[in-house]
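4.2 Preliminary Data

To establish feasibility before requesting continued support, the project team ran the inverse folding procedure on a target of 498 residues. The structure was first converted into the token representation described in Section 3, and no sequence information of any kind was made available to the design step. The complete token record follows.
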């Protein structure tokens, strides 16, 4: 599960294909103009300055026209539910929590493999006899999106239809504003069905016309997970309320970091640990309405803080998902805490800690979210009713959502269910702490209004470029220039300073 969630977090690059660029850009000339401009507009400065050459308004790409379906699904296609995904997570959710999944015919006994995934037979079925065909392409080297883009582009003329596909937060708008998704209302879900879902989970997948294009079974608010023994040693207490009081804003957080250093501990493990708390609280998107890349002041705050932590020895100079980073989460590590969202605490941290009672959680200095997976109905699906039923039961059914959280501790996207569950919930991994109640408080504070279609690539390339700055290989200006070079390779249609 730790490996599964590592992929979920979006650690691999995104490359927009030409077909999807055209879809996202609509029929106007804005994207063509951006690609041809040569990138002479000054959009940001290395010291965190605002865009001086163009509009700072967030990019709101026009929803592409849907592609006319020129071929009907074959008889074989109508008997198969074809779902595109990159890993086992959604498969496990469907197998365990969709009441129309035929466990007996699919050979599912409840046994799991070494990664915690259900063991099933060669073929899987729903109770009405529909065969489930998983079209699985790993995320590595952007293979999943490349394959998905190719398959969706061929959907209209194919008699073997894709019915559903999964997307992640950092590139959701690429597909939401593309031409290959059936709006959720057209699938058959109503406002009443969706009323309990967290608003930010809807905002991320709402197209430029205001139509909801996907749904998620999870919400992913973040908390700060800290070592109880280290808290007692340095702060004199491990009580969540007291620790939260000590790190309730960034100034206090930095003061505690200095105390950790004095006692021989690290405040954070590596360069990237606090990144999402900054990047998911920006005041402007990565790309503005004129296709200029713009670096938000909050991103520069992360840079400055991380450079300070590195130079002063407040972090252990690890990289996210590295072996050393994982070891820092065990009892042998000397790191005080980690920023983690729902899935991270329950799967990655628990897997790396290998010990209950080692960690507690508190809100930390700032509300944020990290990750998330959404279900899309592929335009042209010939199993609309089945897609609707899956979406409804896995994202709208409060009882089912409550059961999922009870059994997996994954925080689900249903406010009623989570509020009910927050009363008296206890996490064995967190020594009996009720972290669900903290998620209930944190989730409504999430603001995803500045999410954009280029987020994954911009986030990843920025972090990569500044690792060299933190380690002293390059100066800040050079790291910034290297980021712009990398982002132009990844997204040639974007404009960056010359």
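Position-by-position output of the design step:
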């Amino acid at each position: 599960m730790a490996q599964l969630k590592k992929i979920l977090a979006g650690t691999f690059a995104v490359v927009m294909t030409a077909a999807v660029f055209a879809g996202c850009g609509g029929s106007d000339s804005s994207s063509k103009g951006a690609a041809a401009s040569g990138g002479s507009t000054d959009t940001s400065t290395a010291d965190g300055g605002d865009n001086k050459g163009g509009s700072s308004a967030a990019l709101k790409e026009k929803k592409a026209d849907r592609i006319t379906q020129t071929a009907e699904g074959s008889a074989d296609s109508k008997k198969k539910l074809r779902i595109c995904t990159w890993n086992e997570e959604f498969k496990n959710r469907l197998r365990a929590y969709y009441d129309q999944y035929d466990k007996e015919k699919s050979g599912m006994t409840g046994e799991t493999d070494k990664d915690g995934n259900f063991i099933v037979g060669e073929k899987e079925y729903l109770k009405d006899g529909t065969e489930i065909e998983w079209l699985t392409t790993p995320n590595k080297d952007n293979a999943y999106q490349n394959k998905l883009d190719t398959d969706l582009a061929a959907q209209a003329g194919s008699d073997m239809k894709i019915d559903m596909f999964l997307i992640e937060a950092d590139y959701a708008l690429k597909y939401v504003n593309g031409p290959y998704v059936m709006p959720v209302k057209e699938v058959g879900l109503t406002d009443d069905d969706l009323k309990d879902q967290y608003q930010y989970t809807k905002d991320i997948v709402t197209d430029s016309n205001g139509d909801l294009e996907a749904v998620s079974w999870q919400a992913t608010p973040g908390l700060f997970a800290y070592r109880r023994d280290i808290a007692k040693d340095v702060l004199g207490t491990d009580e969540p309320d007291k620790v939260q009081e000590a790190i309730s804003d960034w100034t206090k957080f930095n003061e505690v970091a200095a105390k950790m250093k004095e006692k021989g501990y690290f405040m954070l493990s590596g360069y990237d640990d606090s990144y999402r708390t900054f990047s998911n609280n920006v005041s402007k998107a990565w790309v503005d309405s004129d296709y200029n890349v713009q670096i938000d002041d909050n991103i520069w705050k992360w840079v400055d803080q991380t450079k300070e932590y590195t130079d002063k020895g407040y972090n252990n100079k690890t990289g996210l998902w590295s072996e050393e980073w994982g070891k820092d989460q065990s009892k042998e590590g000397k790191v005080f805490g980690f920023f983690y969202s729902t899935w991270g605490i329950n799967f990655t941290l628990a897997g790396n800690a290998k010990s209950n009672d080692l960690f507690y959680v508190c809100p930390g200095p700032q509300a944020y979210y990290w990750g998330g997976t959404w279900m899309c109905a592929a335009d042209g699906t010939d199993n609309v009713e089945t897609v609707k039923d899956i979406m409804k039961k896995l994202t709208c059914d409060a009882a089912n959502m409550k059961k999922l959280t009870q059994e997996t501790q994954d925080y689900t996207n249903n406010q009623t269910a989570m509020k009910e569950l927050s009363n008296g919930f206890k996490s064995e991994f967190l020594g009996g702490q009720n972290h669900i109640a903290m998620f209930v408080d944190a989730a409504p504070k999430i603001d995803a209004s500045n999410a954009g279609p280029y987020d994954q690539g911009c986030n990843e390339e920025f972090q990569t470029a500044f690792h060299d700055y933190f380690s002293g290989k390059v100066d800040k200006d050079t790291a910034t220039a290297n980021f712009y070079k990398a982002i132009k390779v990844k997204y040639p249609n974007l404009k960056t300073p010359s």
